[in-house]
Amino acid sequence: MIIKLRNSLIVLAVLLAAIIVLVSVTYHSANVVIESTVLAHQQNVAAQAAATTEMWLKHQMQVVDSAIDQINKIDPITEASSMPVLKMALAAGDFSDVYIGLEDGTMIDGAEWVPPAGYDPRVRPWYINAVEKGKMAVSPPYIDMTTREMVIALSAPLYRDDRVIGVISNDIILDMLVKNVMNVKAAETGYSFIVNSEGTFMVHPDQELLLTHSLQDTDPTLRRVMEHFKSSDSGTFSYKIGGQENILAYQLISSVGWYLCTTMTKEEAYALSERTSMLFAAESALRAVGFMVLLTMSVVGVSAFLLFIYNRRYKSTVLQHAEQISGMNQDLAWNINRRKEVETHYQTLFHVANDAILISKGMIIVECNEKAKEVFGVNHYGIIGNNMLDLSPEIQPDGEVSLEKVRRIINKASEGEQQSFMWSFLRSDGTEFPCEVNLKSQHLNKEEFILISIRDISKRVNAEQQLRQAQKMAAMGEMLGAIAHQWRQPLNTLSTYVVSIQSAFYNNMISKEFVEKLVTAADSQIQFMSKTIDDFRHFFKPSKNKEHFSIADVVDSSVKLMQPNFKQSGIVMKLNVPDDAALVVYGYRSEFVHVIVNILANARDAVVEKLSSDPDADSREIKIDVENLANNVMIHITDRGCGITESMMPKIFNPYFTTKGTASGTGMGLYMAKMIVENEMHGTITVKSGDGKTVFTVSLPKHSEAE
After folding, report:
1. pLDDT reported for residue 467
2. Which of 145, 111, 109, 106 is nearest to 122 (CA)?
3. Fewer CB within 10 Å: C terminus or N terminus of the chain?
């Protein structure tokens, strides 16, 4: 009996040791995985901050590119002709100043700064940097002479006939970049900074370090950090300062060749990741399991020893129950930790989203994220408890009542279909701003909630409006030349009439019939010239209100505006437009005239290009055919010009795409035409090219003036 009991205790001791070893190995493995998770988390923080900074810098570069396209259309470049472009770029980007330095030493400043005597832009770093690189360049930070603040300059050369004629440059106050980087705060004592490819501090909370100190010189443990940076565009680096371990994460900002870095103590990094990582929960669970196993096995061993004497069957039952309880506790702990992890993850995504997000129950808003408070300019309680109509004007820009429109949209969303639409909201100061809205119905715990994602597009809409007006102004110069050419004949005729009066007077030939005939003929010429000016004025007059208008009337106005250009180029127009009162559409009339004029100008350029390579080509005709369908009006504009290649076909409606070079325009004509037709008139615009002809087709829904 004693031998059997001793053997049982030995077996129990071996089992306890095996379990302890297994728990220790698992705990060590969890620590290794946790270490990798912490480093990956820090790298992700740096990557997200770098992506935000990269996107902000690229936006500034796009504004510079747009300004260059506008400047390249100006010849010669003077202060009067270029100042509107500089002002527009200054308003569109986060710049403190936008200016041009010309090859003759002239300085044109968009902020109207007057340079001191002897100031020569050609010797300034921004001018030299852009000329040497031959493309857009980012200068090192320097003190701006205008604002006396630390700035960086985005500079790009201006060309005429492959020759540099000057440089356009934009100053970005470094505080704007600091504001973006310093917002990335991952812990209480952690912070973010930016260094260049040599390790010099470009952005840092300690202003005294800027441009004077290098990252590798701040501590002996960081001497090899730049070698680590250059071996990979992103990663982490561990170092010690004052005996305390730290983690540095970095990410390359490719557009400027700088590195965005975040740093914090290892202790804080672990604490931060501990709040969001399931692995830390697993670590805690393993500790608890180990302790519970030791405690349980001890109790079971003692109980087994005592109960073995009295009742072997009772011992077996107790052990079985203990195992079941242990398994249930482990499952419960895992479920609780998993739910906390998921909740923390989605709360983080909800509040760091770039779009405003509202959650409503029925029509009442029950939750919103941080971006929503920023977009509407109110606090949390200015949104919660209201509905979407409280944040909107009574009438939407398309003329529809907001209440009726939102009810229709919510009803469709309740059927399971996601709704995407344009909507006008109100800020706290009462101003309206346009948004892109996605609305979807969700069910949770048998309750229906509506998820509303809102993106503020006011900057984009304003930029499109400015570009649209710029397109009109570009067309104005071309049409003025054509009108001047068209006026020569009637002016010559009027001059002949005036001279004939003097001759008739000296020859006693003035009679009532002579005067009436002369007045009638002169009036006809004057009316023709007046009608030309009226058509020109209506084309450039901005549309303020939508209206019903006739397609035949728009085609007639567009053709009259382009007729002088066609005559100069020897192009013949052929129209097939039915005189049908049912050909009525709804929208901005002058904007749609601009659409037809843009397509006709594109067709004219194609024909002129074809004739330049083949003067005898039979391609001098442009046709306009209007087709009256049951619910739509189709406008087909056909030319037999140079055509559109298959590779260019997917790009012709892209913004800034052009085949005529930077000096010809911005390449926004067909893009703006597409935006007007699709967004404002709810139609479509397509193009086909082949068999020696190109056909632009505009399809619009028909409207009755009574609607």
Report:
1. 67
2. 106
3. N
